[in-house]
Amino acid sequence: MEESISGFKIRGDWGDVVEHGERIALALRETGVDGDAYHDFDDWRPKSHERIDEDVSAKTAEQASVGEGEGERAGKTPGEDLQTAGEKLTESYEKVGENDTESAVERWGESIGHVARAADSASRKALRKVEDTVYRKVMTQMAPYYFDNELVSANVQEVGRGEAGETFVFEVNINDDELKSEVSDVLAEYESEIDRWHVEAEKRTEDVAAAEGVEPPETEGGPDSTTT
Length: 228
Fold this sequence. Notes:
Blueprint lengths: L1 E3 L2 E6 L1 H17 L5 H9 L7 H12 L6 H4 L4 H20 L3 H42 L2 E4 L3 E11 L2 E10 L2 H17 L11 H8 L16
Antiparallel strand pairs: 1-2, 2-5, 3-4, 4-5
């Protein structure tokens, strides 16, 4: 592993990439990190049973998706916002007729706000129709598969293919400098104390449960189960 100002980087085969992600996920947990930002990264990081051009591509496209705007979060369609905008505009004219200038201006402003919100919702909806295809077919040919949130910035890309197999580069940066230093210390401990890292593999608990006649556990695996 290489450590620099831009993050923790590994170059190797798919197993190396998976192990790197597991080590960082576990190190984050050991420093007390939890919450949605952590779990989003833990879900995105490459797994041993995944393929970069299928699974990681799909997860990257999903996390890069255009988020919901104000109108969508309010449960309003563009058509509903436009209808409300028309009603507010009518009310504005009525207030003008009543010589209530202040209320007229207020209704006018509300009308403009709903028009803007309708346009925003329509734009986001249109973008979502093309962004997944554009990302998968175009962007991944020019840029690495990436993940970015307030906790972690990461990217992985295939950099070589030969008789020995595929070669990848996986780089992860912790966005908070103090936390990054703590994670660095934990990773250094792994390097000096752990002789062999057991990469987590996807387990078919349903098949085993059916064969043995028992219920599968609700949760299994995760970064807590990767060391011995």
